[in-house]
Amino acid sequence: MRKEYILEGLCCANCAAKIEKEVRALFGVLEANINLVNCKLSIQLADGVDTDLTQVIKQIVASHEPSVKVIKHDEDKEEVGTKQEKKETMDENKIFLVRLAITVVLTALCSVINIQDHIKIIVLAIAYLVIGYEVLMNAIKNILRGKLFDENFLMGFASLAAFIIGDQLEAISVLVFYEIGELLQDMAVNKSRKNIADLMDIRPDYANKMVGERIEALPPEKIEVGDIILVKPGEKIPLDGMVVKGNSFIDTRALTGESVPREVTVDDMVLSGTISTNGLLEIKVTKPYGEATVSKILELVQNAGSKKAESEKFITRFANYYTPIVVILAIAVAVFPPLFGFGTFTQWLYRALSFLIISCPCALVISIPLSFFGGIGGGAKHGVLIKGGNYLDALKQVDTIVFDKTGTLTQGIFEVSNVCPMDGVDESYLVRMAAIAESQSTHPIAKSILAYYNNISKDKAMQPVQINELAGHGVVADTESEVIYAGNEKLMKQHNIDVPQNHSAGSIVHVAVNENYLGYILIDDVIKPETKGVMRELKQLGVKRTIMLTGDHEEAAKAVAKLCQVDEYQSELLPQDKVAWFDKYKNQAGMSGKIAFVGDGINDAPVLAGADIGIAMGGIGSDAAIEAADIVIMNDEIGKVVTAIKIARKTKKIVIQNIVFALSVKAIIMLLSFFGITSIWFAIFADVGVALLALLNALRAMSIK
User: Fold this and answer.
1) What pLDDT does residue 569 have?
2) Cβ-based burial of 148 (10 A; exposed 0-12, middle 13-18, buried ≥19)
3) For residue 193, what pLDDT is reported?
């Protein structure tokens, strides 16, 4: 069972990691993850556990972030809660500006007016308490709860100690710049959230339901399957459906990243989240809102934050050790040097305070997940749905890619290129028998045979037939007078039908009646024009091995592999053979790199599920693709595989930059502080300043060219 809570006002990634850890330790909780982008806590409960954890979670959250509100997730409440949160944030900012003004005025008066020392100390103490009241109170509350080493404690203790040892102006200044930095950091986090939310702004606000001659504007959730909705030019299509009247050009950029609109007319299927640009459409709804494409995509992207990359998990673990270690170093710096005669306690205590301020790991803990989510948002902008940071992380390491052929490397558009009857067999009779056998199949090859038959024959009537479709072999059709076999060479051999040796390139459908071989039909599948260029780009990106798996016969597979420039291929494979061969390649890859499989997401679900990275092509509107794959490409462009890898590599690069930058700056400032070269001001930059710069760098993950 899954439960979700909104944590209103949560911005501290370090506190989020601690909340996650404590919730995960509760009885019956299998997994707990906080998505900082939408402030959502997701909990997975064990089977049979239906305990209401709301009060316990409120207590845990309050122990780390007293100002954060815990609300059970509900979409309507979430929207109201977001508005309320915005109002409260504005009020808090106004109060902060008043506190800041009072502090600055009091501190300035003490600096420019000549007053007695004891009065000056009192005025500065008032200024200190005005700006630092919240930090100190939160620190005291957390100490009483046994929560040491949080940011409030570290900053409160450091500033208070500075005030006591005589650096009152510096103590106040530290708190002023810390509070300003925190405000800017919260603004940066909220800006990141808004940017990512804007990328996925495809949720429709309403649907125009047609009731007789009237039109009612209703929430999409209240529209039922079978209802007729009206979509005006410029409006988003709110639900999946079929056009029953009108025609228009549909802008699909929000789903597929395609810039060229697609024309739709009567009987065409349209998807929610796309926009009708110029025409009036009447659409018959085929799916309820909860199952519509737009709902699936939004749920997928919003939940992506719960699947964390190894880098995120490492930083969370690292933060648990980093802060206590630096605090211990601070104590050592304050105590041991003066004991051995290297300066006074006051000098070394001042230097130790810098260590305390630097010990907060927020720059790392918040910028890393935002970098990954930025990459996920950037992918969605290009029509590439990535289910989590863990898959984005793994995609960067892919060095072997296995492709399905039909619909992936090829367009999946089949055409009859040649009909080859045996001597004495009429060509039209051969095609008719094949058409009868394939009459009930939905396979693209079957459709191409039926289309060809309809073009050459005036007699469209089909006799009653009982079909037995054999996966990976073909079709056996029983009519009243005969048995028709239509399929590959394996089907013919299975029924002891002799087939002449054939070296034609293309898909071959052999046809026999009552075990008498009639001949074969040659069918070509058009290769996507960009495929060759994609293979070249993959090599440039460092992919060492490209492989094609197909059920086609050897000659056809060889021809396609050569044209597509894949390194290896395996032909004449049954569905179970594909799984076996893929497992073999996966074992060969071993620990050195990751292996990805690219398929259509419907027929290849077992292989997609078994791959390190399963990439579904043309998954738009496909339940099977969205369920089975780790990455869903929302159209059939093979080039989006390259886009996905580039996104993964840029995101990983930004993550590494943030880790190296944050740790390097903190280490340098600590070293300089130890030797007394820098002041507490630099420590503030190493904490808040580095966090801001890391956040701004994380935003770059959303802009992938």
Assistant:
1) 93
2) middle
3) 60
Q: What per-residue confidence (pLDDT) applies to 699?
A: 77
pTM, two decimals, is 0.71
pLDDT of 510 reads: 93
Pairing of strands 410-421, 516-527: antiparallel
pLDDT of residue 539: 93
Copy the structure tokens of residue 234.
Answer: 């410029």
Backbone angles phi, psi at 43, to 5 degrees: -125, 130
Second CATH level (architecture) for the domain 411-525: 3-Layer(aba) Sandwich (3.40)
Kindly state the DSSP code that residue 441 receives in the 8-state scheme. Answer: -
Say what the pLDDT of residue 209 is.
Answer: 92
pLDDT at 202: 65
Q: Helices (H) and strands (E) in the chain — how many of each?
A: 23, 26
Instruction: Look at the block and give the residue holding tokens 């902008």.
Output: 381
CATH of 224-287, one of 3.90.1170.50, 2.70.150.10, 3.40.190.10, 3.40.50.1000: 2.70.150.10
Under 8 Å CB-to-CB from 289, ≥6 apart: which residues? 220, 221, 223, 238, 239, 272, 295
Q: What span, in angstroms and rounded, lies between the C-alpha atoms of 176 and 162?
A: 14
Query: Residue 285: beta bridge partners?
Result: 241
The per-residue DSSP string of 332-373 comes to HHHHHHHHTTSS-HHHHHHHHHHHHHHT--HHHHHHHHHHHH
* Sign of the dihedral defined by the CA atoms of residues 191, 196, 197, 199, in that order: positive
Catalytic residues, by residue number, are: 404
Strand-pairing partners, residue 263, are: 249
Which residues of the chain carry a pLDDT beneath 70? 11-14, 36-38, 73-91, 146-150, 185-186, 188-203, 254-260, 297-309, 316, 363, 460-461, 464, 503, 505, 589-592, 601-603, 619-626, 704-705
Q: Which residue has the tokens 């700006």?
A: 131
Rounded to whole angstroms, the Cα distance separating 684 from 678 reads 11
SS3 string, 112-142, reads HCCCCHHHHHHHHHHHHHHHHHHHHHHHHHH
Length of the chain equals 705
The pLDDT value recorded for residue 282 is 93
Which token pair is 46? 């064990």
- List, in sequence order, every residue forming a beta bridge with 71; answer none if it has no partner: 6
pLDDT at 554: 83
Question: Using CA atoms, how far apart are residues 447 and 453, in angstroms rounded to an integer?
Answer: 10
What is the rounded CA–CA span in Å between residue 248 and residue 243? 10
Tokens 């990328």 label which residue?
199
Question: Locate tokens 């070269």: which residue?
Answer: 677
* Number of Cα atoms under 13 Å in the Cβ half of residue 352: 23
* Domain locations along the chain: 2-73, 82-197+304-364+672-682, 224-287, 373-410+527-649, 411-525
Of the CA atoms within 13 Å of residue 399, those in its CB half-sphere come to 9
- What's the rounded Cα separation, in Å, for the pair 561 and 547? 9
CB 418 within 8 A of CB 522: yes
Q: Which residues contact 537 (CB under 8 A, 6 or more apart)?
A: 639, 642
Location of structure tokens 């950091």: 185
CB 431 within 8 A of CB 452: yes
Quickly count: other Cβ atoms within 10 Å of residue 69's Cβ. 19
Cα–Cα distances (Å) from 40 to 163, 183, 299, 305, in that order, read 39, 21, 12, 9
- What would be the CATH architecture of the domain defined by 2-73? 2-Layer Sandwich (3.30)
Comparing C-alpha atoms, which of 472, 442, 509, 515 is closest to residue 604? Answer: 472
What whole-number distance in Å separates Cα of residue 486 and Cα of residue 436? Answer: 10
Three-state DSSP at 652 gives helix
